[in-house]
Give the backbone structure.
Amino acid sequence: MSSHKFILSGGGTGGHIFPAVAIANELKKRHPDAQFLFIGALGRMEMEKIPAEGFEIIGLPVQGLKRKLTLKNITVAWNFLKSYFKAKQIIKNFKPDAAVGTGGYVSLPVIYAAQKERIPSIIWEGNGHAGLANKILAKRAQVICTGLPNMDSYFPKEKIHFTGNPIRDSILQTTRKTEALEHFKLSPEKKTVFITGGSLGAKNINKGIMHALPQLLKQNIQVIWQTGKSFTEKVGKESGYVSQFIYEMNLAFTAADLVVSRAGAISISEICALKKPSILVPSPNVTDDHQTKNAEALSNKKAAVLIKDSAHMELGETIVKILTNPVKMEKLSHAIAPFAKPKSTAEITDLIEKELR
């Protein structure tokens, strides 16, 4: 039997890149002799991240559409055409058995070219609001995997599989809570809140928590706080564990009674998989305000508490309200359970295997 070949495309942000890597790794586990080729956008973060994960990548000159009426879109259109024809050539030479798109504008010319060559295509949409590329590709895709339920207002119902979002295996490696607290040198006697604004931090979440610290200390609440690089405030040791970047995310989640986070697709999936009570503060600076839609998918089912970025000064009060109310904590944990998809990567890979020609 000849070895399988897979083309994967998605990029611009970690939310598109790392799910593609997770899927490729799962395929590689099942098909050790398979060949993989990633296609990314020149100058974007995938051109550096994908080779670091051990996969080959080719870059296209594709750019994102400018949302305002501007002459720059003429260049964007020209670069799209160039990228489409280049992708078509790559696909003809490589002859993949399946093409997988994880969103971002680079996936549009690549997966569209694969569809035109009659290569089975599988797309994944992690957010509660579908991106433009995926909306266009959905018509010809064989399979559409979604990170959140109820996406049939965007995609043909019969193609949708609610698989959840691929999350890092390391997140699911559980330890005992006492060990996790010990790692951060925290007290088992206090309630713990884990705050993360993503790898770059989130200015307003940081401001809100800084303002809330005296209130949290008073209530015997300690923090594990990933602040991101731009944070320069001095925080006393008595508040808990404060760091620009936390590598042991699984330990931070295990130690936490409550999580405060942005509402990116992957962050939400991790919180769901671990069934953690959470406060979601969507970033207002994302395309189509999709983080708010992600957060609403949970808050409408009372599976998380949503606080607007502009209301960040209310964070302290809300943290105290939730952590001092065991019934509320229990309800949040219970309501989030149906959203949990810890085997997401395996489910997506099963669907890809079904489509192999």
